[in-house]
Design brief:
Layout lengths: L1 H19 L6 H11 L5 H20 L5 H11 L10 H20 L1 H13 L5 H10 L13 H10 L37 H4 L24
Helix pairs in contact: 2-3, 2-5, 2-6, 5-6, 7-8
């Protein structure tokens, strides 16, 4: 019981940190969040992905484990209205302003674009299961496409060493090579080989292989030379 009380107290402290953290003033978080949400996120995307990004970001920043599902359940029990999209009109304007500012900096400073990409990648979950949940919340995908839903999910799969669906593995060894046979097609006669015997053209005549190929052939010269 004491352990459960301690765990509950720790979770309560973590949840208070999530609520009291100044998310709007954190430049790195806003840059990564704007890249994850995209240009026109729906309210459900805005709610789920923002909460999920906050849990991941604070967990990475503080080095503490945060369970997103437990935090979401905590919010629903504490105040059902808290599960409304956390980005209101003012927050949406803040995200849009941050995105525009980052784009302007990328246009004036090419080196800043790489840092923006890094922020977007580091702000995404590294657990493939979390990425799958985020992709599901983001909306239905094309059922016929075997590939992951987003680039962020591919990055997470690579970082975790998991297999990426839709990628075919090609073995290093050529299959069937040991059963291959040399070509049996006859060699074609060249235009200047009209008078050359066929067996020599095909490499079966004398002085074409072995020691005989180096035998000196005596040449006949005209008289007086």
């Amino acid at each position: 019981m004491a352990t459960e009380s301690t765990t509950a107290g720790d979770s309560q402290s973590i949840y208070e940190q999530l609520e009291n953290y100044s998310w709007d003033s954190d430049r790195e978080f806003q840059g990564g969040l704007s890249a994850i949400l995209g240009p026109n996120p729906s309210p459900s995307q805005l709610q789920d992905l923002t909460l999920r990004a906050r849990c991941f970001y604070l967990s990475r920043k503080k080095g503490i484990p945060i369970d997103f599902d437990e935090y979401k359940a905590y919010l629903s029990l504490k105040e059902p209205a808290a599960l409304k999209p956390p980005a209101s009109a003012s927050t949406s304007t803040s995200i849009l302003t941050t995105t525009q500012r980052l784009q302007e900096e990328a246009a004036t400073n090419p080196h800043s674009s790489s840092s923006i990409s890094k922020m977007a990648v580091t702000s995404t979950p590294t657990d493939p299961s979390q990425c799958s949940s985020a992709a599901t919340a983001a909306g239905p995908q094309d059922a016929g496409a075997p590939y992951p839903a987003s680039f962020a999910e591919i990055v997470a799969l690579i970082q975790s060493g998991a297999e990426i669906p839709g990628i075919r593995h090609i073995p290093l060894k050529v299959i069937g090579y040991e059963n291959s046979k040399p070509s049996v097609l006859p060699k074609r006669r060249k235009p200047w080989e009209k008078d050359v015997p066929e067996e020599i053209i095909q490499g079966r005549g004398p002085r074409t292989f072995g020691d005989e190929r180096d035998v000196l052939t005596e040449q006949e010269y005209p008289e007086g030379v």
